[in-house]
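Researcher: Next sequence.
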Amino acid sequence: MKFRICCAAAALSLVYFETSDGGALKKTFSKEGQIEDAKIEKDKAPADGVDGKGDSGRTSQTAQTSSSASSSATKPAAQVEKKKIVGDPIVLKINGKKEYRRSQILADMKLIPPQMVQGIAPDKLFEMLVTQKLNTYLMIEQAKKAGLDRTKDFMERVERFKEELLGRTFLIRELAPKAENEAALKARYTKYLVEFKKGRECKVFHIMVSSEKAAKEALESLAKGADFSKLAAEKSEAPSKSKGGEEGYIPLDMLPAEIKDKISALKDGEYTKDFLKTENGFHIFKITDSRDTTPQKFEEAKDMLKQVIMHEEMMKLLERLEKQAKVERFNEDGSPFTPAKETPETPSSTTATQPTAAAS
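Model: Next structure:
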């Protein structure tokens, strides 16, 4: 249980660190460097985008295989020779003065977690990031014309950001080497194996719609024999729509209680006969391939272990620094500080004992 809480907090820590200036952590928690320059070069780019590894790889394997089959079926017999990229060419110029080079876009690509770009071809991702640079520049120029960069509120925010950035830079310098230490990783992996608890996981398919009417219509179609994946691809509004509603293998303990209750009652191949309403919409679920969860192999678990070590070391560091300082804390009303009561742990507030694809 403690390990699961640590994993959840570690995931938040990772997001915190990955946004640091200049991508100082782009190699620290990357999957083989995340998206290497070699993978971006057009003459070496894979046909079907970037794929993650490890247990979550099982999640995307079906979709990737399908994508590969479709891609290879439409490829021309003779591949067009792509131009070799020489040096660091300009890829964007605005108003004849502002320039962005290829290396700047590649640096941005390395900051993106691999799971966020699965299925996106490298050249398409490159194009998207160039467009993002353009949009950001145009908005900044308009903000300057409006004088927003000279307002008191903006200047105060800049100062707060500088302080936060300085703190992040310190943490990165102090903790990143420890998270990369092979001996520390193996020791943490041994602890992970001891703490690992078997559970049940299954492949989850998901249809999400925004209205009760649409949910009822989807259930009626399923009752008449409609294929769940085809219906999800046509009607669902969830990100998994492009994969026929497939969310991947998800440990049941990782799901919110209301979803877990519905899915736990299903047998392989069955779907929920009524919809679940949440603040995000109306949901219908189907499961297949139920199985016991198993510990990840060391190489598969490395990225998770790095996150956990980073978080644990950060907690130790902050505790040590707090003891060295004279700290006086007070309640919101100014009275002597009393810690808030902790709320009971629920499945929705924790992460499973091993990272897998989560339902959207």
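Model: Confidence is low (pLDDT under 50) at residues 1-78, 345-360. The chain has two domains: 1-68+86-198+296-324+346-360, 199-292.
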